[in-house]
Amino acid sequence: MARILLNIRYLGHAFCGWQKQPNGLPTVQAALETAVSTIAGHQVEVIAAGRTDRGVHALNLTAHFDTTSQRSLNAWVAGVNTHLPPDIAVLSAQEVPSDFHARFNACRREYRYVLSNAPVRPVILKGRVGWTFVPVSIEKMQQAAQLLLGEQDFSSFRSSECQAKSPVKTMYSVTIFAKNDFICFDFAASGFLHHQVRNMVGALLYVGSGKITQDDFAQVIAAKNRQKAPPTFMADGLYLTKVGYPPEWGIVEQPTPKWFFGE
Fold it and tell me: Residue 128 — left, alpha, or beta (φ > 0 → left; ψ -120 to 50 → alpha)?
C-alpha cells in the first residue's frame, strides 16, 4: 500500500465546493476521486488539507490517497489529468509516509483574496475576482488588519454552518497591497473557520470605505459574535494559495506562479 500526495489547482465556480455531495452535485473531490480511481484501477478516497466552499478557487491544495497499484509519479499527474474536467489539474505527486495526513499534519494555510475596486464590474474576470465600486483606503485596512494577528477567538467571522471544534486560530500574517489595478488580501494562519476569510475581507472593506472605524473593527473582534460583524463578502476572488507542513515530512511546496503576483 502506498500513500500519494497530490498538489491540485482548480477554478471553483463550476463546482459546489470541494466535498462530495450525497445528491451527486459536481464537486472537486468527486471529480478527482473518479479520475484517480480510473488510473489506480480501484476505488480510492482522496482526503484534502481543507474543504473550499462553492465558488472558491485553489492554486495549490494538497490531498492524499492510498493505493495498492504500482504507478509512476507521472501517471498520477499526466494520467489523472486526462480524466479530469478542464477546471481541475494535478500539478505534482509525491509518495509520502503511510502515517502522513494531508489535513491533520498541515500547520499553515494561506489564502489570497483578489479584489477589483473599480466603478464598473470586472466582466472579463467574472467569477475570478471580487468587486466593489465603493472607493476604499488600503492604509486604513492595513492598520485594522493588524488587530487580526496572533492566537484569538474568531467567532465574529465564523459561519453558523462551521463544524470546527474551536473558533480559536492563530493568524500569522495579514498583508494588503495594490497590484495591477487589484487589491490583494493575503492571510496566513494555522487554520481557518468556515467563511472566515470572506467575512474578514467584508469587515476590512467596511473599514476601508469608512462605514466603520478601526475601533469599531476591534469591537467586532472582541464581540466574538457573528451578528456583530458586517455581511459575508462574495466568494469570487478567494484562492487557497498554499498549505504548509513541518519540514520533517519533506513535502515539496509549489511556488506561487508569477502571473498571480508571485515571485
Answer: alpha
Task: Give the model confidence (pLDDT) of 170-183 as tens digits.
Answer: 999 999 999 988 99
Instruction: Select from 233, 210, 85 the least CA-distant residue to 159.
Output: 233
> Contact at 8 Å (CB) between 139 and 120?
no
The pTM of the full predicted model, rounded to 2 decimals, is: 0.95
* Active-site residue, from 53, 87, 216, 236: 53
Cell of 222: 472582541
Q: What is the C-alpha separation between 149 and 143, in angstroms, rounded?
A: 11
Query: Is 53 a known active-site residue?
Result: yes
What is the Cα–Cα distance from 32 to 17, expressed in whole angstroms? Answer: 12
Q: Is residue 20 within 8 Å of 33, Cβ to Cβ?
A: yes
pLDDT at 26: 95
Give me the half-sphere count of Cα atoms (radius 13 Å) on the Cβ side of residue 168.
3
Q: DSSP label at 139?
A: H
| Domains contained in the chain, CATH given | 2-105 (3.30.70.580), 108-240 (3.30.70.660)
**What are the backbone angles phi and psi of residue 182, rounded to the nearest 5°?**
-120, 160
Task: Round the average pLDDT of the chain to a whole number and report it.
Answer: 95
Say how many residues make up the chain: 263
Buried b (16+ CB within 10 A) or exposed e, 184-223: bbbbbbebbbbbbbbbbbbbbbbbbbeebeeeebeebbee
Neighbouring residues of 232: CB distance < 8 A, sequence distance ≥ 6: 159, 195, 198, 199, 202
Whether the Cβ atoms of residue 117 and residue 135 lie closer than 8 Å to each other: yes
A 10 A CB-CB count for 157 gives 29
Whole-angstrom Cα distance, residue 24 to residue 32? 14
